[in-house]
Structure formats: C-alpha cells, structure tokens
Design a protein that fits this description.
With 758 residues, the chain is an alpha/beta fold. The chain contains 23 helices and 26 strands. It folds into 3 domains: 25-91 and 118-188 and 200-314, Acetylglutamate kinase-like (Carbamate kinase), CATH 3.40.1160.10; 339-418 and 432-533, Aldehyde Dehydrogenase, Chain A, domain 1 (3-Layer(aba) Sandwich); 548-701, Aldehyde Dehydrogenase, Chain A, domain 2 (3-Layer(aba) Sandwich). It is 37% helix and 17% strand. The longest helix is centred in the first third of the chain and has 24 residues, at 80-103. Residues 324-588 form the Aldehyde dehydrogenase domain.
Length: 758
C-alpha cells in the first residue's frame, strides 16, 4: 500500500528490463512507464475552437486510475492553440463590440468579421489555461501535475537533454504526472525533409514525433497515441475495402495507403506510423487508437493497458500462423466450399474423422495425458473439470459412434426444400435450408467437444472457429489436426480453424464482421461473460442448468430413487444434472421420503433445505442461500410444494428453462406438467440426464440452448441451419400484378420433393 495525500491505493508489482518492446497485447498489463499522447482532434471540440471538456475529464480519470495503481504516467498534449483561439476570439469580439457600439450602433454587430489568428499567439494565450484545467482535473484524484514545454532544440543540446531527463525522472519519483507540450509560442516551422533518420535522430516537428522521442528518451514501456480514427487501416478509412489493422509490423508500411491528415493538428496518420515505428525500434511498445469515439473513449486507455483488442498494436514479433481475422476469412471461404459439396462428400469427411478417432487412439490419449498431468501439477482445476478434461478409450469409441450417426443423418440437411409456392404462372418460390455461416465455439476443459462440434459444422456446411481452454491445449491440437486431415480428402481443410493465438475471448466476441453465431460450452460464468461481451453477434446457449425433479403423490416407489440417483449422481458436474428436488407435501414423513433421503446420504450428496422444507423440520440441513443455485457437484436443494401447479410455478420462478422432470403414475398430472412447464426439455418418469444430443439421436450437440429464438434444447444439425428464398421466374415484374395488370397472384402450395431417407 502506498499513500499520496492521505489516500491509500494498491501498487502493482510492475517491473521489466527496458530495451525490447512487448511482443503481444496480453503483456501490456505489465507496462510500468506509459506515455499518453493526446492529438489535437482528441483534445479539441469539433468546431476547433475550445476544448472537449467531457472527453478530457474522462482521459484524466483513466490516467489517474493507472497512476494510482503504481504506474508512471506522462501526457503529451495538444490543445493550447485551440484553447488560446477560443480566448482570443472572445477578447476580439468583446473589444470590437465595444468600438462598434460607440461608432456605428448595435445594428452592425452582426457583421463583425473575426480576423485570422496567428497560431503562436493562440498557443501563448492558451498554454496557461490548458495547464490550469489539467491541474484542476487531476486535483480531483489527489494527483499533482506539472507542465513542461519543449522545442526541437531541447533534444539536440546534450545539456538540455540531460536536464529534461532529470526533471522528468524527479517528477515521476514524486508521483507527479508530467504534462508535456511543444512550445508552440516560439517553435520554428518544421524544416523541409527533416524526418525520422534512424534510431538516434528524430525531428520534433509535431506532438507525434515529440511523444516518440520522449518515450525512447525516458525508456517507457508503452506509448498510447490517441487520435480521431480507430487505428491504422490498410487503406484510407471510409473507403469500401478499408480494414482495421490489429497488429502492425515493421516493413508492412509498403502495403498501406495513407489518407489525408486529421482535421486539426500538424501530423496525419503517416506521421503517427513513422513516429510509432521509431519508438518501437527504440524499445517502446505503441498502440494507436481512437480517443474521440463516445462509446469507447471513457475506457480506451485502460482497455489498452489491460491488453484488450483496441486500435492498432505495433509489434516486432510476427506470429508463426495466421491472425484470428485471417482465420475467420479462411473459415468463411472454406465453409462456402464445404456447403457446395455433395451431401455424401460431407458425410465421407465425417466418417473419416470417426475412423481417425479410433485409429489414432494412442496418440490422442498420450496428448490428453500431458494435459491431465500439467493440470494436476498446477492444481488449478477442480475435480469436476478434471473429469471433463479426461479422455478414455470408451469416450473415443462413443465419440466415433456419435459422429457416424451425424454422417448418416446429414444426407439431407443443407439445401433441403421446406416450402414451395407458386406465386403466379411460371413464377415459383422455394424456401431452402442453408448454413448459418461462420460459427465461433468457445469451450472449456472438454476436448471431446472439438470433434463433436466439428462434425456438426461439417454436416451443416458451416465454417468453424474453435477456441479451447489452454488446459486442453495438447488434446485440442491433435484432435484439430485429425479434423483437418479428414477435411483434406475433399480439399476443404480451411473450413475448421483452431484459434491458437493469445486472443482474449472478449476480443473474439467483437469480430461481428467475421462471425455469425457464438456457441459457448463451459461454466455458467463463461456463458454469462460471453453473452455480455458479444456485440452484435447472437449467442446460443444457456447461462445456467438449474434442473428440477418433482416427485408427485402418485409416484412409483421403484422409479423415484432410481431417477433421482441418476439425475444427481451419474455426472453431477453436467449442466443437465438435478439441482433442486421438489417433494409433494403429502410425501413428508412417509417411507418413500425416507428412502430418498437415505439414498442421497449413501451417495454422499449434501442436502440444502428450501425455506418451506426447513419450516417442517426441527433439525434441518443448512438452509439454502438461493433457490437459483447450480451446484455442479454432489449437492442439491430439497423444497416442498403443495401441488403440481405450485411445482410448475416454482420452476418458472427459480428455474433456468433447461430440463425439468415429473415422477408420477398419474397420466393426467403428468400431461399437465408436460404442457405447462416452459422449459427446453420436459420429461415424465425419465432422468434429467437424457437431455443430450447423443441420447436424443442427434449424434452430438453443439450445446443446449434455453433461448426461445431459432433453436432450443440440445442443438444438432438442424439448429445450425437457416433458410433462404429462391424465386424462379420468366420476365416477371411487379407492375404486371397491379389492378389493371395482366397477371394475378396464385399463391398455391406445391408438394415438396421427396426426402432422401436412406
């Protein structure tokens, strides 16, 4: 804990040897010394006269937050000219209005002309006010700021360089934020052809070059350059094919076309790139990002330091494989080729993958053994997750059987006609099934998920991006290799991509131009995080699996303990495991109730009492904290209800619309339960564990959806398809169907082509 102005704050263990820039965004969180360069477009208002006060306040708040974490923050700021222009215009208007009021009367005030203001005079008038504003804002966070004005000469004179360096180090040592600006009141115009000339020389002709020079001089870890564009594009922003460059490498500038410079300021994007590359060569990491966008400017600096995918990151280390954006494009192109194959060709790929799972069993289990050993040595995974991570011969055999089911059922999935309508004579309309596009499936600790999801994507003609947990890296690698080997028999290897880069899940969820559907497979926390992070991309899945079993008064003694034991104890970590047991009140203190409790005790299931159940007991188990709890272990809640109607109401109030079960011999009661419970899966006298794609005969599933749009329950091939409309005409135009036209609408339903059921 450090203290500054009697306010305690946590310091971070930040230290690294300077001399080499960070290779990956994820390492930026270790940056200790940071320079934030604020471009003129960031600091000034849209009218270029005055400061953007709200934006500036947000930047100061972020800088203060990072400073109070123990980092050393410096700001290179523009804005003095704009602030001075505002002040001088006000003074000129005021003096002109007085003079004209005395000589010409009020009628001519509206005709006053504002003279062109010289930039140096504006800078002189604005510097003190700009600094006063910064001081007032930083004071709100108990942080002191200090102003330093420099010119190009200060860097060329060795004594002045040492003085500047010493001053900055002393300010940082005292936890003061230096605010640096070029002394625009006296600075000469930039010399022609004076540009970046190697690692030791840089001409300070704008704040971009000043920030780069300062970053290298002060051996900073990170330089953040904020402008009014999202970052560096491969062509001028706004052009049709312009794409934001996530990571820029030295040597890539030949492939970039630069547009015009910012609406204000001395330097354009070309100047920023040259300054960034110079700083990178000097050992400082650089990110160029948008500091003006209202949706991100409030957290852009902290997001960059946290390693999130914001703006363009400059790196000297080029990854061995493709970027995730390139993988998304490859999956899109590969998926379209896959969808164009004949159904039997897609089935051949899946059959081949099923064979490889059994043929290469030893290699797969060896890779999985490495993952298990690493997970156990690190001790990071709980026992239920270790079970999910583990593969076995029986699991691989089951996977192969499931894949063959998928292959057999996929013959008539893509391109199936589901509706035919004759709109008019020689004008026929068809609705046909087509792939969704590119799927992103994110899964934790479940390597068996990879071949299952791959087979479903292949069967439905979708491109696929897979992001597995690092705890299953070895298993995922070999399973993906086998998947691509199977795809290669028809030349569609690129359709399934495994993301191996250091992409954060949150960053992947922002690739709305590359991904059409996100399917999370993992903990409820993972699903919630993805649902929160996904911007503009639909998420299929469920955040919780709070499954209920209701024991009715007419339940069979033989069936009750069997179904409850299987639902809770067969695999307690599964999302379709029993979490809340509802007991009809009339069954309390009966032999059946005693049998249920005895069975749970034998199976070592920890019982939590619901509020009503606890009220019936003198000595009860621990009362449940929440009736909306997914335990994922040998624990469950028991609650009492008065009727099947109350059981339904309880499920609707506390359930997650996943899977709910009634145990009863009364058919009327069972049908009431089946029809009124609004969940994805509702069962009568069957275990909750049947809620599974393989057990439903779907071959496998990409997940279980509790949403109400598109797909619900275990999602197999059908859930990965959408439709498109095909209209075949012969010189038809809408005007022919007007009141006085020559044609009439028929809208006749036509028979569907016979499905291939072989």
């Amino acid at each position: 804990i450090r203290c500054w102005s009697n306010i305690p704050f946590i310091t971070m263990p930040l230290s690294r040897a300077h001399g080499k820039s960070f290779a990956h965004r994820s390492e930026l969180k270790h940056a200790k010394r940071i320079v934030v360069k604020l471009g003129s477009a960031v600091v000034t208002r849209g009218d270029e006269c005055g400061l953007a006060l709200g934006r500036l306040a947000s930047i100061v708040e972020q800088v203060s937050m990072l400073q109070n974490q123990g980092r050393e923050m410096m700001i290179v700021t523009s804005g003095a000219v704009a602030f001075g222009k505002q002040r001088l215009r006000h003074e000129i208007l005021l003096s002109q209005s007085v003079r004209q009021a005395l000589h010409s009367g009020q009628s001519q005030l509206k005709d006053m002309a504002i003279p062109v203001l010289e930039a140096r005079a504006c800078a002189a008038a604005g510097q003190s006010g700009l600094m006063a504003l910064y001081e007032a804002m930083f004071t709100q966070y108990s942080i002191c700021a200090a102003q330093i004005l420099v010119t190009n000469l200060d860097f060329h004179d060795e004594q002045k360089r040492r003085n500047l360096n010493g001053t900055l180090h002393e300010l940082l040592r005292m936890n003061i934020v230096p605010i640096i600006n070029t002394n625009d009141a006296v600075v000469p115009p930039p010399e022609p052809n004076s540009d970046l000339q190697g690692v030791n020389v840089i001409s300070v002709k704008d704040n971009d070059s000043l920030a780069a020079r300062l970053a290298v001089e002060m051996k900073t870890d990170l330089l953040i350059v904020l402008s009014d564009v999202e970052g560096l594009f491969d062509s001028p922003p706004g052009s049709d094919d312009a794409k934001l460059i996530d990571i820029f490498y030295p040597g890539d500038q030949q492939s970039v076309t630069f547009g015009t410079k910012s609406r204000v300021g001395m330097g354009g994007m070309e100047a920023k790139v040259k300054a960034a590359l110079w700083a990178l060569q000097g050992g400082t990491s650089v990110v160029i990002a948008n500091g003006t966008h209202p949706k991100i400017s409030g957290h852009v600096i902290t997001d960059i330091v946290e390693g999130k995918k914001v703006g363009t990151f400059f790196s000297e280390v080029k990854p061995a494989g493709p970027t995730v954006e390139q993988q998304g494009e490859m999956a899109r192109a590969g998926g379209r080729t896959l969808a164009a194959l004949q159904p039997e060709q897609r089935a051949e790929v899946i059959y081949r993958l099923a064979d490889l799972l059994t043929d290469q069993r030893e290699e797969i289990l060896l890779a999985n053994k490495k993952d298990l050993e690493e997970a156990e040595n690190k001790g990071r995974l709980a026992l239920p997750l270790l079970k999910r991570l583990s593969l076995s011969t029986s699991k691989l055999n089951s996977l192969a059987i499931g894949l063959r089911q998928i292959a057999a059922s996929s013959q008539d999935s893509v391109g199936r006609v589901i509706r035919r309508t004759r709109i008019a004579k020689d004008l026929d309309l068809e609705q046909v099934t087509v792939p969704i596009g590119v799927l992103l499936v994110i899964f934790e600790s479940r390597p068996d998920c990879l071949p299952q999801v791959s087979a479903l994507a292949i069967a439905s003609g979708n491109g696929l991006l897979l992001k597995g947990g690092k705890e299953a890296a070895h298993s995922n690698q070999i399973l993906h290799h086998l998947t691509q080997e199977a795809l290669s028999i028809h030349g569609v290897k690129d359709a399934v991509q495994l993301v191996n880069t250091r992409e954060e899940v949150e960053d992947l969820c922002r690739l709305d131009k590359l991904i059409d559907l996100i399917i999370p497979r993992g903990s409820s926390q993972l699903v919630r995080n993805i649902q929160k992070a996904a911007k503009g991309i639909p998420v299929m899945g469920h955040s919780e699996g709070i499954c209920h079993v209701y024991v009715d008064t007419d339940a069979s003694v033989e069936k009750v303990t069997r179904i409850i034991r299987d639902s809770k104890c067969e695999y307690p970590a599964a999302c379709n495991a029993l979490e809340t047991l509802l007991i009809h009140r009339d069954l309390l203190r009966t032999p059946l109730f005693d049998q249920i409790i005895d069975m749970l005790r034998v199976e070592q299931v920890k019982i939590h009492a619901g509020p009503k159940f606890a009220s019936y007991l003198t000595f009860s188990p621990s009362e449940v904290k929440s009736l909306r709890t997914e335990y994922g272990d040998l624990e469950c809640c028991i609650e009492v209800v008065d009727s099947v109607q109350e059981a339904v109401e309880h499920i609707h109030k506390y359930g997650s619309s996943h899977t709910d079960v009634i145990i009863t011999e009364n058919e009327k009661t069972a049908e009431f339960f089946l029809q009124h419970v609004d969940s994805a899966c509702v069962f009568w006298n069957a275990s909750t564990r049947f809620s599974d794609g393989y057990r439903f005969g779907l071959g496998a599933e990409v997940g279980i959806s509790t949403s109400r749009i598109h797909a619900r329950g275990p999602v197999g091939i059908e859930g990965l398809l959408t439709t498109k409309w095909l209209l075949r005409g012969d010189n038809h135009v809408v005007s022919d169907f007007s009141e006085h036209g020559s044609m009439k609408y028929l809208h006749e339903s036509l028979p569907l082509p016979q499905r291939n059921t072989s």
